[in-house]
Amino acid sequence: MATPLARQVADEARRRRAAEAATAHRPEATRVFTVANQKGGVGKTTSTVNLAAALSLLGMNVLVIDIDPQGNASTALGVPHHSGVPGIYDVLIDSVPLADVVQPASTVERLWCAPATIDLAGAEIELVPLVAREARLRKALEKFLAQRTGDDRIDFVFIDCPPSLGLLTVNAFVSAQEVLIPIQTEYYALEGVSQLMNNITLIREHLNPDLRVSTILLTMYDARTRLSAQVAEEVRQHFPNEVLKTLIPRSVRISEAPSFGETVMTYDPASTGALSYREAALEMTAVKASGPSAGEETGEGQHG
């Protein structure tokens, strides 16, 4: 009888063959996601940059907009974001064109980033007196996307926002059509999600009627524990149509990659973490933006 380790190795080999053979399809129009969770430490930025890199490696043109003053997404993509570098602050406050601040990622082709500099820390206050303060990012993004047509069209946009609901996050919600929520498979996984859903409802009612939660990604999954499986099942019960089948494992390689200015997709492409993000990216390309919620169409992946 095969040992648990042998079964795990065989299952991963099967998943890898399926993921490598799968074909990704460009969406009919640009899909804009805000990646949000008001609870910290759930893998929000990690999932943003790794999904973006995975989609780029599948042939998509992808833009990451970093509006978290910590600038972790910019770091992971190897994009300079020290003081003096033009960034998303200049777009929001000084109406600088987004095209003037976007930089290519250092290790992945077809992947770009609008970086967050330290100046962004004061943007919440500086936005208050500005005209149309909630829609400044949306206006800049729409102009940028209109300039990218044909083969150069951006297929996916991911906006990585801070965990608090301030004007930066509101700008992200107003700019997007879809919300991607990473949820960790640990105690209190759904803590804060109900409040996030309430805030999304308010944004939809008052600022952006097109906004919807389309995708939920389960992160930090530990297949060795019953807890992870129980939490995954609980989240699926709450969001039966939105949860991706792919589970992102707890992984040292995923955590190490940003310190080298990389995502796990290039830092260790043979790792289980890289495979899982590729599977999640394939699932996302299989779902139409205006069609069924993510999770209704399947891709290869781990199952809880």
Kindly list the characteristics that best describe this protein.
eight-stranded mixed sheet, 304 residues, alpha/beta, 39% helix, 12 helices
Question: Can you offer a commentary on this structure?
Answer:
The protein is of the alpha/beta class. It is 39% helix and 15% strand. It contains 12 helices and 8 strands. The chain has helices at 4-21, 44-57, 72-76, 88-94, 123-127, 136-147, 167-175, 193-206, 226-238, 252-256, 264-267, 272-285; strands at residues 31-35, 62-66, 103-104, 111-114, 156-160, 178-184, 212-221, 243-249. An 8-stranded mixed sheet has the order 3-4-2-5-1-6-7-8, sandwiched between helices. α9 (226-238) links the parallel β7 and β8 (243-249). The longest helix has 18 residues, at 4-21. It is globular, with a radius of gyration of 18 Å. The two termini are 23 Å apart.
Give a quick precis of the structure.
This protein is an alpha/beta fold and 304 residues long. It has helices at 4-21, 44-57, 72-76, 88-94, 123-127, 136-147, 167-175, 193-206, 226-238, 252-256, 264-267, 272-285, and strands spanning 31-35, 62-66, 103-104, 111-114, 156-160, 178-184, 212-221, 243-249. It is globular.
Helix content: 25-40%
* Strand residues, percent: 5-15%
First CA to last CA: what distance? Answer: 23 Å
Q: Characterize the quaternary organization of these chains.
A: single chain
Stretches where pLDDT is under 50 for at least 5 consecutive residues are: 290-304
DSSP strand tally: 8
Along the chain, the helix and strand elements come as HEHEHHEEHHEHEHEHEHHH
How would a crystallographer describe the biggest sheet? Answer: 8 strands, mixed
Q: What structural class should be given to the helix and strand makeup?
A: alpha/beta
How many helices? The count is 12
Major sheet: arrangement of strands = 3-4-2-5-1-6-7-8
